[in-house]
Hints:
8 helices; three-stranded antiparallel β-sheet; globular; 2 domains
Amino acid sequence: MSPETHIKNGDPVSAKKVLMGLVRDDPANVNYRIFLFQLCCVLGEYDRALNQLGVISEMSDSALPMVQAYRELLQCEWLRQSVFAGSKTPLFFGEPEPWVGDIFQSLKLHAQGDFSEAQALRLSAYDQIEAVSGRINDQEFDWIADADSRIGPLLEAVIDGKYYWLPMHRVTSIDIEAPEDLRDFVWLPAQFTWTNGGQSVGFIPTRYPGSEAIDDGQIQTARKTEWEQVADDVYTGYGQRMLTTNAGDYALLDVRKIEFNPIA
Length: 264
């Protein structure tokens, strides 16, 4: 069975085993190396993924832009792990509002297992945030949030090689590419248009942190989302990111465009 078939069956571990055999038989095949890099990312083997990027850079000059972009993404993923472990904070896009500190402190408390206090602090911060209306895939909404309680009204993104949390009121629109490569199930390319008229190309992490460590290929490949309820109305996600609105829930990989109305 081919690695591609194993991926379609939601079994990245078996896909990697088969692919490793192909790489041993044809070590100069750059396409195999790129495939192996992507599989290492899916499985959370980020050190090995970084090593493969080094090999790819020596084999193909045309792959250098991809290599540089994903080296930065890997560095951001390591920072992201520290952020959700409560030991570091992400960059914040724009001038931080007063409630931002409460959000990050609640994340630290959540990581320490103090879910009730984290939720109390989180709800206090939410009271200070004005809901942003808009459209997602042309469906109107009065408010939008990440379905994971830790993230809520913010959006994770990697822009210019840096890991940010974005307040949605600073964004005019997000255009999200349909997934084409296996790596898109780890980081999904997107274009951001800001309220000041500027634009940036970046990535949205497709999966919730820790998904790569779950012994479930469907979770690792962002084919599904599962929730762990850690307290009343407090949910931690694994697998594909979900956005929630008053009109319904949306899996990130199904979203092509989000438009945000300006706050009056």
